[in-house]
Design brief:
The complex is a heterodimer. Chain A is α+β, with helices and mostly antiparallel strands. Chain A contains 18 helices and 21 strands. The radius of gyration of chain A is 27 Å and the shape is elongated. Classes of the chains: A alpha+beta, B mainly alpha.
């Protein structure tokens, strides 16, 4: 009997070891996947049961706050006082669908985290707290952008050219963040469906995706700034070449000639051709530069790289490679005028304008100026730094007056008031394939010269074929530029004698 | 040892208070006095009534009971009306349990007293077992008819019935050892086991089925049946019984799965808890229990920091192990497992060294009840077995289970106290001593022939 009791002891020991092994399996081996299981609501619960830091605009206006919940299954309720105006920048902290925008990229500061102990008591039982994030965005400029776009799909990006600070970044379509942080799963699900619905928009844009930094469009003639920079920096002799006045350019490897806009005729040197935006001349210049120089210059501005903006999901703009363009000469010609396979975000185009304005140096774009803890001490401060040295200061100094002429008597003539010294470039990209049905209307600009402070990019896609950058994007650009300059001077961004109403 | 365990329990309590209220507890005297007082009573009564008993049991059950109480207190903070507060009730049940423990030691002065009460035990066990089916006092909770409602208090009679039933088994087997293990019946010219003594097996099996069917308690049926088969094997050493028992159980399980929806639901949850139509329904408890365990990781979230209470149903009863795994982590959960290993080890050691066949079997049975019950529920929570609604002994909330387990431990302590005072030398020790001074006379059954004569039933 004794031996069998011993046997029982062994069996029991084995059974209990099985429990221990299974515990290790659940609590250690499978813990990461279990913790991230879509059925596991704990992470969201922990998140929603603690206060979350505030996100503030440049002037201290709250863009995202947490309040004690009065109902529902969570202890705290996130709210966004400006609603759809900032949703694509600030993002959301949805219990079900996760975090987007600044809510995602600065989650580590925003969420309740343990603080460094200050007393012996806190060493044993750590205190937790949240940080407050101050952004660079101006509520006034953002609202102005929304007002000027007037519900049309499109994007506006305003940058401080000297620091890379994003002063405004607004795009349509946008979404209401409130329902997406609603404690009711049903409300959240409906809002999510709407925010991700592509069929709900005439052009298939889902509201959750920002047209300002997550979507690329052919930049059209705004790309001639890149081509010009390539000429000044990489093949300076070419700036003096006098291109013939023609209305169509016969392209190598192709029987389809490249026509000027509205079949007009133009030609001359770079300085002559940029204000009227001569397509044939710049296409020929592109062919003269060659694929290697053109692609090098595009990449120097940041093409084919993700701009280091502090948001998740920023899209890279695309420019064909040197070998691709060398092998396909028509593509090289079209790339020189921002057509075909060139795709640019509004953010990238604002960065290009900012680079020219800032003596060729593109500052790294950023949204967050400072993060402060509960005691008001800065735990993170942005230090402006150069992202790309896109062109030499000399080349920028040569290009700026030519772009001023675009505003003075070129394609952007009449867009700006005469006493506003702005350098600009319009773009009217043909859209629709294989038949061109619409235009993407662009404008980029920087000012006030001679000491530029801000750059602006405006894109309004899928406009009628009659639309041009100056006509469609111009009025928006004018208001944004005036407002941005007023913002830098600490004046109201609208409603004054020098700004839009 | 007891003092150390008290210190651990009090430290856990302090941590919980600090974690929940953010400051040290303001009135700590009542808690300290009751924990230390309970230990002093347990210790004093044992020194008085069973001074030679194995010293492992008390610290182990104190730790289990203490951790269990802290976890219940964590989900039932002391605020508002305390009449239905589970932490308060558990404290009361613990006090009653300690009194019953002392009473057991006091009234059961010799284990053979229990042997004499065999028929009474059986009768009482059957009455208790069937009592929930009596209309009027029987109560239905969560689809299982396991409770008696007496004067507003719910009692789970099965918790007491299982002890009586196992004491009966021990007594019956001890008396019928030979007839159960030596072939006496003749079929043709072959000797086979007399089938008549096997009748109880069938009877118990039938009883288990009745309980499953009528009261929906798979856990209890599984427990009693396992202890029964294990005891039968320990008594006779015949593997046939094991095979036969497992066969019967498999047949019963198959029938039950197809006959009773309650059982088949539990089996399908066990087999596939992640299936989309179960995960938010009947499989939710198990899956959320796993999420609790995984949230704890190695070190746990810390007392008062877990979320089990919001997601896992029955967090202080069936699923208390997942709450421990969450807030105290793998370390805390392992401590619980190790406590049961120690309990079972001490219990089986007691059984091995007990004087009579009856006390050996009784100690084995008592130990297996605690050990297997702990295993079944921990295996259920970790999905090694289907989840059965048995309580984690000493840890989970429940007056009946707590009181029953204190009585059970009292019986084990009594048997342990009766062991020969000087532990008999093992064979190896004897060989090491290598002298003719071997006290053969006092350990006649541990003769040298033991190894060779292993086939003979002992």
């Amino acid at each position: 009997m004794g031996r069998r009791i011993q046997g029982l002891a062994v069996v029991m020991a084995l059974l209990f070891s099985l429990i221990l092994i299974q515990l290790v399996n659940i609590q250690v081996v499978r813990a990461p996947s279990l913790n991230n299981s879509p059925y596991n609501a704990r992470a969201a619960q922990i998140d929603q049961d603690h206060p979350r830091g505030e996100i503030l605009a440049a002037n201290g206006a709250p863009l995202a706050i947490s309040n004690k919940a009065t109902s529902g299954s969570y202890l705290y309720q996130r709210s966004y006082p400006f609603g759809p105006l900032f949703s694509q920048v600030v993002g959301i902290d949805s219990p079900i669908y996760g975090k987007y925008g600044l809510e995602a990229s600065y989650d580590g500061y925003l969420k309740s985290h343990t603080l460094d102990p200050e007393t012996i008591g806190q060493l044993l039982v750590p205190k937790s707290g949240t940080d407050t994030i101050t952004t660079t965005v101006s509520v006034g400029l953002q609202a102005l952008a929304a007002k000027e776009l007037a519900g049309r799909d499109g994007a506006v990006v305003v940058l401080d050219t000297r620091t890379g600070a994003v002063l405004a970044m607004y795009s349509n379509p946008t979404y209401k963040p409130g329902p997406l942080v609603n404690p009711s799963p049903a409300v959240e699900a409906t809002a999510w469906k709407q925010a991700t619905c592509r069929a709900c928009n005439d052009h298939g844009f889902a509201a959750l995706t920002s047209l300002a930094y997550q979507f690329t469009f052919a930049p059209g003639s705004t790309s001639k700034v890149v081509t010009s920079a390539a000429t000044f920096d990489l093949d300076p002799a070419l700036q003096y070449k006098d291109y013939p006045v023609i209305s169509a350019l016969n392209l190598p490897q192709s029987d389809k000639p490249l026509h000027n806009f509205a079949f007009g005729s133009c030609g001359g040197t770079l300085a002559i051709m940029l204000p009227p935006s001569c397509d044939t001349g710049f296409a020929a210049m592109g062919l003269d530069l060659g694929g290697s120089r053109l692609s090098t210059q595009a990449n120097r501005f940041g093409y084919n790289q993700v701009p280091p903006l502090d948001l998740p999901g920023v899209a890279a703009s695309s420019f064909p490679t040197a070998s691709e363009m060398n092998a396909n000469q028509p593509e090289l010609a079209y790339s020189a005028i921002g057509q075909q396979n060139v795709g640019t975000t509004a953010l990238q185009n604002a960065l290009i304008a900012a680079g020219v304005a800032n003596k060729g140096a593109v500052m790294a774009p950023h949204l967050v100026e400072q993060v402060r803890d509960q005691n008001g001490n800065a735990v993170y401060t942005w230090h402006p730094h150069i992202w790309k040295q896109a062109m030499s200061a000399g080349a920028a100094a040569l290009l700026t007056p030519i772009m001023e002429n675009v505003a003075a008597y070129g394609t952007a003539a009449g867009v700006f008031p005469y006493n506003l010294h702005v350098a600009a470039k319009t773009g009217t990209a043909q859209a629709g394939y294989p038949v061109v049905t619409n235009t993407h209307d662009w404008m980029i600009a920087f000012g006030p010269n001679p000491n530029p402070q801000v750059s602006v990019a405006v894109v309004i896609p899928w406009q009628p074929i009659s639309g041009t950058g100056a006509v469609v994007a111009g009025p928006v650009m004018r208001c944004m530029m005036e407002g941005a300059i007023a913002f830098e001077a600490h004046q109201p961004v609208s409603g004054t004698s020098t700004t839009c109403p | 040892m007891l003092a150390m365990v008290d210190a651990i329990v009090l430290a856990l309590w302090w941590t919980l208070r600090v974690s929940v209220t953010n400051h040290a507890p303001t009135s700590w005297m009542p808690m300290v006095l009751s924990v230390v007082g309970a230990s002093l009573i347990l210790h004093g009564a044992t020194r008085w009534l069973a001074p030679r008993a194995n010293p492992v049991f008390l610290p182990v059950i104190t730790l289990l009971n203490g951790i269990g109480f802290i976890v219940i207190l964590r989900w039932w903070p002391l605020s508002g009306a305390l009449g239905h507060n589970r932490a308060v009730l558990q404290a009361v049940w613990t006090a009653v349990g300690i009194v019953l423990y002392v009473a057991t030691l006091l009234f059961v002065r010799r284990s053979r007293d229990l042997d004499r009460l065999r028929s009474t035990a059986l009768l009482l066990a059957i009455v208790l077992m069937l009592s929930p089916l009596i209309p009027g006092i029987g109560e239905n909770v969560n689809g299982a008819r396991l409770w008696l409602n007496i004067g507003g208090f719910s009692v789970q009679p099965i918790e007491f019935a299982k002890i009586l039933l196992c004491l009966f088994f021990a007594s019956y087997f001890a008396e019928n050892r030979d007839i159960l293990s030596i072939p006496t019946a003749r079929i043709g010219n072959r000797l086979v086991l007399d089938p008549r003594p096997l009748l109880p097996i069938v009877a118990v099996w039938g009883l288990a089925m009745v309980v499953i069917g009528g009261e929906n308690d798979i856990g209890f049926a599984l427990l009693v049946f396992s202890v029964f088969i294990a005891l039968l094997w320990v008594t006779t050493g015949r593997a046939t019984y094991l095979v036969f028992g497992f066969g019967l159980f498999a047949a019963g399980a198959y029938v039950a799965t197809h006959l009773f929806p309650h059982v088949s639901a539990r089996v399908s949850v066990w087999l596939n808890p992640w299936s989309p139509n179960l995960i938010q329904g009947s499989g939710r408890q198990l899956v959320q229990g796993w999420f609790s365990l995984s949230a704890g990781g190695v070190a746990g979230t810390g007392l008062g920091q877990g979320l089990s209470g919001r997601y896992v149903t029955d967090i202080t009863t069936d699923m208390i192990f997942s709450s421990i795994g969450e807030e105290l982590g793998l370390i805390g959960a392992s401590v619980i497992v190790i406590c049961f290993v120690l309990y079972v080890g001490a219990g089986l050691r007691t059984a091995q060294r007990a004087r009579s066949a009856y006390s050996r079997l009784a100690a084995t049975a008592m130990t297996l009840i605690v050990g297997l019950q702990a295993f079944f529920i921990m295996a259920g929570v970790t999905r090694l077995l289907p989840l059965t609604g048995v309580e984690l002994p000493f840890v989970a909330y429940g007056g009946s289970t707590l009181m029953a387990n204190y009585i059970l431990t009292g019986i084990l302590m009594r048997i342990s106290d009766e062991e020969p005072g000087v532990p008999p030398l093992t064979e190896r020790e004897r060989q090491a001593a290598g002298t003719a001074f071997t006290p053969r006379a006092t350990t006649p059954r541990r003769g040298l022939g033991r190894r060779r004569g292993a086939a003979a039933p002992r």
